[in-house]
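User: hey, got a sec? need RidA family protein folded
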Amino acid sequence: MTRTSVPSGSPYEEAIGFRRGVRLGKWIAISGTAPVWPDGEVDPDPAAQARRCWEIALGALTSLGGTREDVIRTRHYVVRADDAGPVGLVHGEVFGTVLPASTMVVVAGLLDPRWKVEVELDAVVD
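Assistant: Yep! Here you go:
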């Protein structure tokens, strides 16, 4: 099987040794995706952060030949349980009738204190 990947553009990629997404055969995994804009800014609104995360993650998925409909599992990491509602609503907007298996976990913190949410996804391309 051929292994392909797409970079995230993170300055940590080479030092840590990771990629935004990896495809091996029909399987695609998109790594933890944070709500950062190209200029480095982060919107403080949790729903806006979730939308930005999914925009980046789904862009990487598309780059690897997948579509939203291929997503079988998603994960959310939120810093505050109070943000689960708005973050979850965005997930519903983004995935609609796809209905992937999904997990949301409240964590003590994320790498950047401005981040309220980080997401991951797995997909299988038919």
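Quick note: Strands lie at 3-6, 21-24, 27-33, 71-78, 101-106, 117-124. Let me know if you need anything else on RidA family protein.
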